[in-house]
């Protein structure tokens, strides 16, 4: 390997590490202050950069926000064909161990319902994909009808609403809301699979 190639690779690795550090700091700042209260300056300060230095990695606050959201989704990514209801319960368990990330996601989701929010398109597209994935999970688990008679298409938005709604309740009162237990109770309400 030539010296120039080595230096280029080293710079790329350092750049990726720095970018990851910035995203972690942005996640923390957004969790503490919300998106509107978070500033590029606050994130830059947390990682020991000037605001101008931060702009080298993320040209706008909006670009940084979308990168944070995409990074967060990568942590939970799994090929669609591998998702099952019991794995969703495991995801809820996992989320109960990372309150800061759940808090940031929930705060951004709440803020994104306003017309001009930069994450609105991200969350709109994300929920279309999540609902479609839930339809597939429910169909593979129950077929064309759940024991209640609902189709997977009708039940999927309810499943997503329960997952997200439990997160909000748990964030507000973790000592009173057993998020993982309540989600498993909901799965019981969906009914047993037909043999």
TrEMBL record:
Keywords: DNA-binding, Repressor, Transcription, Transcription regulation. InterPro entries: BetI_C, Homeodomain-like_sf, HTH-type_TetR-like_transc_reg, HTH_TetR, Tet_transcr_reg_TetR-rel_C_sf. Residues 16-76 form the HTH tetR-type domain. Residues 39-58 bind DNA. This is TetR/AcrR family transcriptional regulator. It comes from Streptomyces ureilyticus.
